[in-house]
């Protein structure tokens, strides 16, 4: 099994993107981790039809 | 997947960035506009028929018919308008754009712009001013008289000055205006001033009656939005070359006619995707409320389509007060637009964002992915014809257009 | 009087909304209120509650709905206004932080090109797509979201395996990477023990116990609860975690925790552990201890897994024992707790916020006395008929889906457990209440304090009936956690609760008490 990227991660500083509950970002900021909080929204306003259309474009 | 969408979009974006919109002439619709006819009425937005037109649009049609001499009064105009003898055609089908109702007839003077990079042209009427004007659906004697003055004095004089001056580089003027607090759609004071500055010496040198020249200068000076009728065709000839690129999801047209909001997508040719126009959320002039508002109308959203207007809101913090927000909102709105565009402009820059280029080349797919709709600032017309502007604000385009367009796009290019 | 407001294109995350919902419901004169996004599920709920109109029915997951039923139109309107204010307050607070918050992951990566990990806690229906994007951008993933389909999990873990990336989840509540807490996690000392866990609070309990025994951790990798249960998922993340710990020079001892895996998967995991060449401690919650095989050691409970790992790390012999406090002290506690009980008192009520901890207790009691009802029971005859009502000996996992519809998890919002305590105290047959107090990031700021009143009331009620209610607890936490472990212990002890050093010991103590009165 290739796990090289995981072992590499263990040697680096965590740099995190938080997609969702803001408190998870707050926790990380508290311990000095660089975090970017996203303003995530459901794609196409939660429209499932649009989501499946997008997946036909590989997105 | 059948096509490289990313590549196609890069091509579209690059064409937009390379544009060189330039004022080359002033002519009339009949002489210059491709496909124009004597019984044709050009209008803003997607295709529309008389029976579906809203109040201000109808008022403008009535005024246009009277101005053109095809009808003597409102009653005759209405009969003629409904008769089937008048052909209604979107400005966009004739390489042009019209603000608000955007009604234009054969004799009306038009700006002629050329995109020097690709040779394509774009047309737009001259801006009449604020308040009771044709584009807001007014058709009183005063309105007709003003239109006549524009045809017989304003346009010819300006044309002479323009001929003496030579072509005017709009890209340069817009770029300066953005750094002076304009955004090219709802705020055009700086642009109008720059234009007057360009033309003034040439106007003064003309062999014309001094009073007439003065009237021309006063007219331009009294109308902060005179420049709008130039930013719009500048934007139009800028984005038109990005149309019809196989596989591109770049939106090259957004437009409203007071009944429908419509978009067109590069890789889907000239198909319109429409949905009922939405209401504008804004601030009203004293005495008016949301109950007085007409639905969203006009081709002026071509400015956003080209990367200015609402997309450069951070360059015009003053506009935000007018639309009910704070300067910080203006910045955030603009920042959001970067999420739905292909690129950043290399000429139109926003000082407040460290001269970052404006978000340019709107991408349908990104809109659908993020759920972020293009942000549009616009004026609000009174729903009754002929009253005029009652406010300004932000309008959220109807999602349906984008959903329908995506469906068609996936049908054509998806797995 | 019903009033409904639908705000288009106003997305807020569900936990935030639930907390606002709670506040609005408490306003004077409000009979009922719902503040939620217009997802299909929520719209159905509103319909059932009679709080839906045309606008609600056409709302999408991106539209906010505030629906209030109140004694008068005025109250309803005020409640809606107040709700809007609360929502805007939070929005403007976060807008104050200067940085633009990107909507798309592309934009986020553009803004933070050094990013190496994405923590995803968006609604399950949308999570898989985001994970795919992240993995394709070569980012490791912590996937907190649940309700991700099995197919998606399999596909995503295959993709992660291809790329050699972490895909911790779905439904992964806890991880500690490079000493940093992801989602629900404790502050644990650094050391040389690496853990891979398919059990959130299990990882919390083990890591905290490791510190208690004087050890520390390198990494605490989560895999999500389904990783070992399903043959198609095949323990992929567990095996990747084991491989990474094998390669990690800092890790000297490896610990693996999970609910009992599917048989073929267990085999693969054991093989992988054997190949590491490092001492490995295995704990499959519910499976008894196996015999030691080469470098593989089997622990019988979470605390033991920690104890064994620390012993191995220090090169010491592990001394198996049930209690870490002296036998005499244990007996004294049992005596004290039972001496004033009334004759009818005989039942155990385990009220848990941590799923793995609940399971540990349930399995222990199953083995020792049988007939333990639970919402987590595998034996159909012992599944609680109504999860909200205990029967006989009951251990309930309050973090289970049935309790968290429209409510935050009990580790975040103690009111679910509070309500259950109040309910249980009416039952004169209850002898012992057994509870977990979980500290650490994302947990409530004062878990003990939040239920202190209700626990006190319960003890008073029992006394009024001429008996005595024993309350036995354990605190999953470390001295480094912000809730202040010592304070938490003091609070519990101040009202007569017994605080044992681990969930296992608390369960064993509760068992002794039950046996004494049974």
Give a short synopsis of this structure:
Chain B has 14 helices and 15 strands. With about 425 residues, chain B is α+β, with helices and mostly antiparallel strands.
Helix content of chain C: 40-55%
What is the level-2 CATH architecture name of the domain at 240-413 in chain B? Alpha-Beta Complex
Write down the overall geometry of chain C: globular
CATH architecture of the largest domain in chain C: 3-Layer(aba) Sandwich
The residue fraction in helices of chain B comes out at 25-40%
- CATH class category label of the largest domain in chain C: Alpha Beta
In CATH terms, what is the fold-level topology of the domain at 240-413 in chain B?
Answer: v583 fold
Q: Report the average pLDDT across residues of chain B.
A: 93
Question: Helix tally of chain B?
Answer: 14
Please give a structural write-up:
The complex is a heterotrimer of chains A (59), B (415) and C (518). Chain A is an alpha+beta fold. The two termini of chain A are 28 Å apart. Chain A has 3 helices and 2 strands; from the N terminus they run αβαβα. Chain A has helices at 4-11, 22-30, 48-55, and strands at 15-19, 34-37. With 415 residues, chain B is an alpha+beta fold. The mean pLDDT of chain B is 93. Chain C is built from 17 helices and 19 strands. Chain C folds into 4 domains: 2-96, Gyrase A, domain 2, CATH 3.30.1360; 100-171, Rossmann fold; 189-320, Rossmann fold (3-Layer(aba) Sandwich), CATH 3.40.50.261; 327-517, Rossmann fold (3-Layer(aba) Sandwich), CATH 3.40.50.261. Chain C has helices at residues 14-25, 40-48, 54-57, 73-96, 105-111, 124-136, 150-163, 200-212, 236-247, 263-276, 302-314, 327-338, 355-368, 415-424, 447-464, 485-494, 503-517, and strands at 2-7, 30-37, 64-70, 117-120, 140-143, 167-168, 174-177, 180-183, 190-197, 217-222, 253-258, 280-284, 296-298, 347-352, 372-374, 393-397, 430-438, 470-476, 498-500. Classes of the chains: A alpha+beta (59), B alpha+beta (415), C alpha/beta (518). Chains in contact: A-B, A-C, B-C. The A-B interface holds A 41-47, 49-50, 53-54, 56-59 and B 1, 5, 365, 368-372, 399, 403, 406-407, 409-410, 413-415. Strand 1 of chain A pairs parallel with strand 4 of chain C, so a sheet runs across the interface.
């Amino acid at each position: 099994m290739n796990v090289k990227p995981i072992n590499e991660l263990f040697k680096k500083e965590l740099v995190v993107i938080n997609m969702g509950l803001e408190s998870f970002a707050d926790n990380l900021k508290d311990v000095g981790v660089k975090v970017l909080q996203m303003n995530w929204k459901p794609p196409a306003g939660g429209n499932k039809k649009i989501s499946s259309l997008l997946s036909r474009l590989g997105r | 997947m059948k096509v490289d969408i990313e590549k196609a979009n890069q091509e579209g974006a690059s064409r937009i960035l390379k544009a060189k919109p330039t004022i080359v002439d002033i002519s009339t619709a009949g002489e210059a506009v491709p496909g124009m006819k004597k019984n044709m009425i050009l209008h803003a937005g997607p295709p529309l028929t008389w029976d579906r037109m809203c109040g201000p649009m109808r008022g403008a049609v009535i005024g246009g018919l009277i101005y053109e001499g095809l009808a003597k009064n409102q009653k005759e105009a209405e009969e003629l308008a409904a008769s089937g003898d008048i052909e209604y055609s979107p400005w966009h089908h004739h390489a042009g754009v019209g603000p608000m109702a955007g009604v234009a007839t054969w004799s009306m003077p038009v700006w002629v712009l050329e995109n020097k990079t690709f040779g394509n042209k774009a047309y737009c009427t001259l801006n009449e001013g604020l308040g009771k004007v044709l584009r807001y659906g007014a058709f009183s004697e005063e309105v007709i008289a003003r239109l006549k003055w524009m045809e017989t004095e304003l346009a010819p004089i300006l044309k002479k000055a323009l001929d003496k001056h030579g072509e005017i580089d709009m890209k340069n003027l817009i770029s300066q205006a953005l750094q002076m607090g304009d955004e090219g759609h709802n705020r055009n004071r700086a642009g109008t001033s720059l234009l007057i500055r360009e033309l003034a010496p040439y106007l003064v040198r003309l062999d014309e009656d001094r009073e007439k020249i003065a009237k021309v200068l006063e007219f331009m000076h009294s109308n902060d939005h005179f420049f709008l009728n130039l930013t719009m065709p500048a934007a139009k000839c800028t984005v038109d070359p990005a149309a019809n690129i196989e596989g591109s999801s770049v939106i090259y047209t957004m437009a409203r006619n007071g009944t429908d909001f419509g978009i067109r997508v590069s890789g889907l040719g000239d198909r319109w995707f429409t949905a009922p126009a939405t209401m504008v959320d804004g601030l009203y002039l004293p005495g008016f409320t949301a109950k007085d508002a007409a639905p969203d109308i006009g081709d002026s959203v071509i400015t956003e389509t080209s990367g200015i207007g609402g997309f450069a809101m951070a360059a015009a913090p003053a506009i935000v007060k007018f639309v009910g927000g704070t300067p910080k909102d203006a910045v955030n709105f603009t920042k959001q637009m970067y999420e739905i565009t292909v690129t950043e402009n290399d000429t139109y820059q926003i000082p407040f964002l460290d001269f970052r280029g404006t978000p340019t080349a709107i991408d349908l797919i990104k809109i659908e992915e993020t759920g972020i709709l293009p942000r549009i600032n616009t004026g609000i017309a009174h729903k009754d014809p002929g009253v005029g502007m009652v406010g300004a604000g932000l309008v959220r385009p109807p999602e349906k257009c984008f959903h329908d367009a995506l469906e068609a796009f996936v049908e054509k290019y998806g797995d | 009087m019903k009033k409904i407001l639908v705000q288009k294109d106003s997305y807020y995350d569900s936990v935030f909304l639930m907390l606002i919902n709670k506040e609005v419901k408490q306003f004077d004169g409000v009979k009922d209120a719902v503040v939620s996004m217009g997802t299909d599920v929520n719209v159905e709920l509103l319909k059932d509650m009679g709080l839906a109109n045309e606008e609600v029915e056409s709302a999408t997951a991106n539209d906010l709905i505030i629906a209030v039923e109140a004694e008068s139109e005025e109250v309803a309107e005020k409640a809606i206004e107040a709700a809007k204010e609360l929502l805007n307050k939070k929005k403007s607070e976060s807008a104050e932080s200067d940085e633009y918050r990107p909507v798309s992951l592309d934009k986020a990566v553009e803004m933070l090109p050094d990013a190496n990990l994405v923590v995803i806690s968006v609604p399950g229906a949308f999570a898989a797509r985001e994970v795919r994007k992240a993995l394709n951008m070569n980012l490791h993933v912590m996937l907190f979201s649940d309700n991700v389909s099995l197919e998606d999990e399999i596909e995503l873990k295959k993709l992660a395996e291809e790329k050699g990336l972490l895909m911790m989840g779905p439904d992964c509540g806890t991880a500690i990477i490079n000493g940093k807490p992801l989602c629900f996690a404790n502050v644990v000392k650094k050391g040389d023990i690496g853990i891979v866990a398919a059990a959130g609070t299990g990882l919390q309990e083990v890591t905290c116990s490791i510190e208690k025994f004087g050890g520390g951790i390198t990494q605490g990798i989560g895999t999500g609860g389904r990783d070992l249960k399903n043959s198609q998922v095949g323990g992929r993340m567990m095996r990747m975690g084991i491989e990474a710990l094998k390669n990690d020079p800092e890790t000297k001892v490896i610990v693996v925790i999970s609910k009992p895996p599917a048989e073929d998967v267990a085999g693969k995991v054991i093989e992988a552990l054997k190949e590491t060449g490092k001492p490995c401690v295995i704990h499959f919650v519910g499976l008894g201890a196996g015999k030691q095989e080469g470098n593989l050691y089997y622990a019988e409970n979470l605390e033991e897994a920690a104890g064994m790992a620390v012993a191995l790390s220090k090169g010491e012999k592990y001394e198996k024992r049930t209690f870490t406090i002296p036998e005499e002290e244990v007996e004294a506690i049992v005596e004290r707790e039972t001496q004033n009980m009334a004759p009818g008192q005989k039942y155990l009520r385990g009220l848990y916020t941590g799923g793995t901890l609940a399971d540990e207790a349930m399995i222990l009691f199953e083995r020792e006395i049988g007939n333990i009802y639970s919402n987590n029971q595998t034996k159909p005859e012992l599944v609680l008929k109504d999860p909200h009502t205990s029967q006989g000996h009951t251990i309930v996992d309050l973090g289970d889906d049935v309790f968290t519809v429209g409510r935050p998890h009990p580790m975040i919002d103690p009111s679910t457990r509070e309500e259950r305590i109040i309910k249980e105290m009416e039952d004169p047959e209850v002898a012992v209440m057994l509870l977990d107090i979980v500290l650490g990031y994302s947990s409530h700021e004062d878990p003990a304090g939040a239920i202190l009143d209700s626990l006190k009331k319960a003890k008073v009620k029992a006394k009024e009936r001429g008996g005595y209610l024993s309350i036995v607890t354990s605190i999953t936490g470390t001295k480094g956690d912000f809730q202040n472990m010592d304070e938490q212990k003091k609070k519990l002890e101040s009202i007569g609760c017994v605080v044992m050093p681990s969930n296992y010991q608390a369960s064993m103590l509760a068992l002794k008490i039950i046996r004494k009165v049974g």
